[in-house]
């Protein structure tokens, strides 16, 4: 059996820390690609960036059935084995009322892809959130410092 651990699956940190580390450089590149660095172009680049962030979150989010009617959240580790459905869903921390969400998570398809012939397992971390509009899980982005084992320098 071969295990493939996706970087960031067992590291601490937040999405905001990751985004803020690379955000100024990304914004500068996007503005440069947009053409003339006039005010209108910067505004268009900012709008494109905001839209891209929304689309990325949507692509990593899977809707779940009702679990809790209260606004609660919890982190889970998901283990995928050649299937878009997790083999395991392990409660890490958060609101105890969501511990039972593991069963529902194992029944959902996630946006993970495998080669045609593979014995690889992928571990991803996600946050289950419930609120007025129902429950969902967002797979967290992969953090670059976990890939090398050393933190990425902040710019």
List the helices and strands and how they pair.
Layout: E1 4-5, H1 15-33, H2 39-59, E2 61-64, E3 72-81, E4 86-94, H3 101-105, E5 121-131, E6 134-139, H4 144-148
Parallel strand pairs: 1-5
Antiparallel strand pairs: 2-6, 3-4, 3-5, 5-6
Low-confidence stretches: 1-19, 145-155
Overall radius of gyration: 18 Å
User: H/E series, N to C?
Assistant: EHHEEEHEEH
**What percent strand?**
25-35%
Principal-axes geometry comes out as globular
Strand segment count: 6
Span between N and C termini? 39 Å
Number of separate structural domains: 2
- The mean pLDDT is 77
Tally of individual helices: 4
**Oligomer status:** single chain
Q: Describe it for me?
A:
The chain has 155 residues and is α+β, with helices and mostly antiparallel strands. It folds into two domains: 12-60; 63-145, no CATH class. The chain is 32% helix and 27% strand. It contains four helices and six strands; from the N terminus they run βααβββαββα. It has helices spanning 15-33, 39-59, 101-105, 144-148; strands at 4-5, 61-64, 72-81, 86-94, 121-131, 134-139. Strands 1, 2, 3, 4, 5 and 6 form a six-stranded mixed sheet that branches. Residues 1-19 and 145-155 have low confidence and may be disordered.
């Amino acid at each position: 059996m071969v295990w493939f651990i996706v970087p960031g699956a067992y590291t601490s940190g937040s999405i905001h820390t990751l985004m803020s580390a690379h955000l100024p450089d990304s914004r500068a590149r996007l503005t440069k690609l947009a053409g003339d660095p006039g005010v209108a172009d910067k505004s268009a680049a900012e709008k494109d960036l905001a839209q891209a962030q929304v689309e990325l979150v949507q692509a990593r989010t899977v809707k779940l059935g009702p679990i809790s009617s209260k606004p609660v959240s919890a982190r889970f580790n998901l283990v995928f084995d050649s299937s878009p459905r997790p083999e395991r869903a392990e409660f890490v921390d958060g609101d105890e009322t969501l511990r039972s969400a593991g069963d529902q998570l194992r029944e959902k398809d996630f946006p993970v892809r495998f080669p045609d012939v593979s014995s690889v397992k992928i571990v991803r971390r996600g946050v289950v959130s419930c609120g007025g509009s129902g429950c969902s899980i967002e797979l967290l982005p992969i953090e670059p410092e976990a890939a090398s084992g050393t933190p990425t320098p902040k710019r």
